[in-house]
Amino acid sequence: MNPESLPRPYPRRTLLRTAGLAAVTAPLLSACVTSAGKEEKPAQAGGAKTAENPLGVKADAPLEVVVFKGGYGDDYAIKAEQQYTAKYPQAKIDHKGLQKVGEAMQPRFVAGDPPDVVDNTGAGRLDIATLVGAKQVTDLAELLAAPAFDQPGKTVRDTLLPGVIEDGTFDGSTVTLNFTYTVWGVWYSKSLFAERGWTYPKTWAEMLALCETIKKAGIAPWTYQGKYAEYINDPLLTMAAKAGGLDLVKAVDNLDPAAWSQPGLKQAAEAFAELAGKGYIMSGSEALSHTEAQAAWCQKKAAFIPCGSWLESEQKEVTPAGFDMVMGTVPSASSGDRLPVTAVQASSSESYLVPAQAKNRAGGLEYLRILFAKESATAFAQANSTLPAVAGATDGLTLTSGLGSVRDAVTAAGPDAFNYRFRTWYAPLAKAVDDATAELVNRRISAADWSARIQKASDSLAKDSTVKKYKR
Amino acid sequence: MRHGRWRFLLAALVPALVLHVVLVFSPYAQAFYLSLTDWTGVAGEANFVGVDNFVRLGDDSLFLDAVRNNAVMLVVVPIATIGLALFLASMLNGRRPLPGASAYQIVYFFPQMLSLVIIAVLWGFVYNPNTGLLNSGLRAIGLDGLARSWLAEPSLALPSVMAVVVWSSVGFYVVLFSAAIGAIPKELFEAAVLDGAGRWATFRRVTLPLVAESVQVAFVYLGIAALDGFVLVQVMSVGPGGPDGTTEVVGLSLYRTAFTYGKFGYATAMGVALFFAALTLAVLALRWRRDEVTA
């Protein structure tokens, strides 16, 4: 759901190479099955814990950092490494900026020889739920309780935006910290709306009325990234969450037997079925990739597009001057909504973790403490026009129209930032929801069928004893 | 002397045998073993679960969609490709080749030189419902009514993908069949013409029986290609594999199960099933050929 995790084409060669790798490492694997899995790492001799060194870093222990080198590059991570060496000059840092983090790290996890910090992000990342299930990740509680690197009087936990810790929490222990903060909403061109005298709607009824006006003006009201149905899912599920509140979200994530027939979800499904039924979605959208749909939107062929807060940086090259894209929050379903209209679906990504079998675990935690410092986060925000997960990191910066609107949305939402967890917990359910929603907005199934078939997928997952379950 | 010969034989055979065992047999054996476990792909341990993974395959509706789609491809792709390739090859060769035949032969081969991923991306553009070449072409000649959302309509998505499979492979078989037709002695064609055979009769009675072996080889190759289809579907289709599983193929299910769902054991079971399907296909095709030869 973040820009790096979008489905991307994989050449067969990659598949074969990976399969070949699995095949070649298989003899080693069977050895691991009996040995490495049970092998206990000797408890490393850490340094003494002091106020200056709250995590007990051994000053001369080498540190290996593996970073996903995607849209954000890895300069920000290298800067944090320089800070680390400034503090521990004897530590030798081995930095790797990779594109396929999962492929490179998988054999090392299996062999029990992982690096000290991994940024498990990008299309080829390892499934985090699987890593957690295999006990390959360190509980970060100690880091969260440690004093923040450059904000005296605060712990690391205090410095993070709402939901960041929850996003990285599995079974009560926080195992990943996500560095970027993503908010989902509906995007439009401020200049286009000003020119036509349109106002961004607060309720779904207003949205439908405005869509009628926009359609009459000869512009398609909505488009979406049809090739990947999760994009149109986001506003639908956000609307449902606003209607039904956090209880609705929790029921969905906990695989409740009646989760998908909750009124809020049905209402939202009907709303989007109506949007499609009235012809407010640009024809052909259903077959467009994210780049094609977003390009059409930038050419003002459609007025609204659902997307996460990465949209502005993703569209940097193709956005016409004066387009002034801004993100609006999803309109409320009705006046009976349990959450205010300002509530946003938000989650963090770019997930940093410290492997359980890391040789320099304390160093890994200390590195994250430095990376999640305000100074480092502000530098990141400036370089990448992306909101980092550290609160207040963009204070005092001059922001672009898109990022500014995202920050304002986060501020307006306050504590009403929520997130569905099922996407990370249960990938097969995410697939079932995407497929059903694509059918719904193409008017091939009704809202009732939509909820029935997702419920069926949710139920069968709940019954599947091979899938690890989480509760919230 | 005898002793020395054995030593020589062993020295010559063992290295190759060891390589073969390590690089070919061992991966297969490991895959068979993994398909009976719940390995996650990242854990150091894998628990033996017996045939559970194979039992699950029967209840996995997406996997069954994939099997159905691969079965459709298995029937349509070889027949369409071989039919088209035979037609083109016999037009370009034989008794009365069309003018410019050799140039055509080169042009038909072009798709073969492109990477499959590039072909998929290009055809993705062609099928774009709003700006794609196909719909724009239809609209340009006034056939607006035929313009479709090719890859997003459940009934058209798989045929659209199969059309690309045929398009990309037909050139290779034109060349293969051209070579086979070229090897037929000219006298046979001349005799047929003297006997008053037309183009169709010549093709049916002379050309086809004499290139039958090449056609059978083509069936095996194309059958195996039809059991794959991963690259085109992954790059072109919506979802991918959609809409709603209508272009799902076994390779895609396997890939998603392993790398998105973290179920390498189950994914390996899919791979093993696919392996047996391909093996059965090859055995059947070769058996059929032997029966024909002996019959």
From TrEMBL, chain A:
Supply the InterPro entries for this chain.
Answer: Bact_solute-bd_prot1, Chitin_NgcE, TAT_signal
- Transmembrane stretches, start-end: none
Superkingdom of origin organism: Bacteria
Database matches in PROSITE patterns: TAT (PS51318)
Give the matching PANTHER family. ARABINOSE-BINDING PROTEIN-RELATED, SN-GLYCEROL-3-PHOSPHATE-BINDING PERIPLASMIC PROTEIN UGPB
Q: Which family does it belong to?
A: Belongs to the bacterial solute-binding protein 1 family.
In its UniProt entry, what is this protein called? N-acetylglucosamine transport system substrate-binding protein
Q: Which organism is it from?
A: Actinoplanes italicus
TrEMBL record, chain B:
Question: What UniProt keywords apply to this chain's record, in alphabetical order?
Answer: Cell membrane, Membrane, Transmembrane, Transmembrane helix, Transport
May I have one GO cellular component term?
A: plasma membrane
All copies of domain ABC transmembrane type-1, residue ranges: 67-285
Membrane topology per record: Multi-pass membrane protein
Give the Gene3D superfamilies listed for this entry: MetI-like
Q: Does the keyword Magnesium apply?
A: no
Give the highest taxon in the source lineage: Bacteria
Keyword Transmembrane attached: yes
- What family name appears in the similarity comment? Belongs to the binding-protein-dependent transport system permease family.
Name of the molecule in the record: N-acetylglucosamine transport system permease protein
Q: What is the organism of origin for this protein?
A: Actinoplanes italicus
